[in-house]
Amino acid sequence: MTDVTRYGLFVGGEFVPAHSGATFPVHNPHNDEVFAQVAEAREADVEDAIAAARAAFEGPWGALTPKERGKLLLRLARLIEDQGELIARLEAKNSGHPIRDVRRFDLVRTVDWFEYFAGMTTKIQGDVIPSSFKGVLNYTLREPLGVVAQIVPWNFPLMFVAWNIAPALAAGNTVILKPAEYTPLSALEIARLTKEAGFPPGAVNVVPGKGSVAGAALARHPGVDKICFTGSVEVGQQIMREAATNLKRPLLELGGKGPNIIFDDADLDAAVQGSLFAAFHNQGQACIAGSRILLHESVWDEFLDAFLPRIRSLRIGDPLDEKTQMGPLTSKDHQKRVLEYVDIAKGEGAEILYGGRRPDTPETSRGYYVLPTLVRAEDPAMRICQEEVFGPFITVTPFAKEDEAVAIANGVPYGLGAGLWTQNLRRAHGLAAQLRAGMVWINSYKLVDPASPFGGMKMSGMGREMGFETIREYTQVKSVWVGYDFEPWRWPE
Ligand code: NAD
Q1: Is 70 in the pocket of ligand 1 (CB under 6 A)?
Q2: Domain count across the chain
Q3: What is the CA(291)–ligand 1 centre distance, in A?
Q4: Predicted local distance difference test score (pLDDT) of residue 2
């Protein structure tokens, strides 16, 4: 029998039960056991969180200087680092993400993000505009928006807390974060640490609950000034419609179907290594996964002869085992969805080169596991080449010419990440310009940095996270005119 830990909502600086008293279970995807019960926010709880965030914005949080905000964010980074192992283990247990990867990526990035944006607080400045009027000074102020709501998915629950709340807070806003139903725990742990760091009550609020209830209430509420959403295209579209009620500016980070193009002049060892990670890191549950390998026909056999054994040898099992390279998918529903794409692939006449089923080891029998799956798909118009699977399921498609590769790469509704492997400089930079994607990785994949803009083109979203681009998202510009030696305009006599 597993111990079940209970969590409240985090509203106004305290853990509180939901008004309705409702809670929901959190499962361990490795063995399907319930190990936590979390208070479920509904409309009344969302109202409380918005009121607390507004009071903090107009009160103690709004009164802080940029330097003071930065110090709080730095203190939070230190606390996360100090309690890193506890947080990493909780994240691995809740999401299925292997512990070694949580430590070296998610945890490190979470700390990096808070540090980077802590430093940003004192660099958010306006401009002095060269005025065309004599005796007039015109300058701009870059001001926070107010109360920001942030709705995040389940694939990188810890990291998304940092990606969302760090820049919003750095810019001077207060936040309400709604984690995904499957993975609310790391957000609640970070909330706990904001209290320990000394954030004023209400600056950070976390309201776990259903998307259709708590999420929708945030999206339509006139007391929310901005809505940031990371998730599926359908829900993103819904959020945008709801946001229209009070013209909240949406920031949407949606799906992807990343092309990963391997040319005949690529360093194939590097391409094999990089493509494996691009495809199967976090069980492929990544919006920027390299889920479509486009492989030059002349290196088809050579690449696959090296790639397939690497896929077969990936160590799959308990995410808390130090040796595990791939854990379970985060939910049972998602496991079902990914396996449905195997049937779709077979129905479309694609060839399963490896995987396409659950592993058959005793260790994985109760969990939401799916083997890493590689599918040969000749026709880029197939559903499996067009639709985001968001799991350990990738396609490989041959091409002969550069133009053809670009057309296939761009021939999907998405435009988030794209990769290419080549040693030809003309080709590398030429294609970087032609690919319709928010991020292009050359001889690398999935690099992210708090300083580098991140976001999608086409149906992959709007707006950018990271760097100063994200500070633009979380601020608005005010133009101030000072007539220091200016005769006010009047009508001619
Ligand atoms: P989802 O859209 O179902 O859910 C995402 C979040 O939205 C969850 O917190 C959910 O509770 C909430 N939600 C659901 N319905 C809602 C509604 N009507 N109103 C308000 N909120 C609602 O997506 P998911 O299945 O959790 O996540 C997978 C998707 O997220 C994939 O498409 C993936 O590509 C995308 N994603 C994008 C990025 C990016 O940065 N572009 C990053 C990670 C994941």
Answers
A1: no
A2: 2
A3: 18
A4: 74
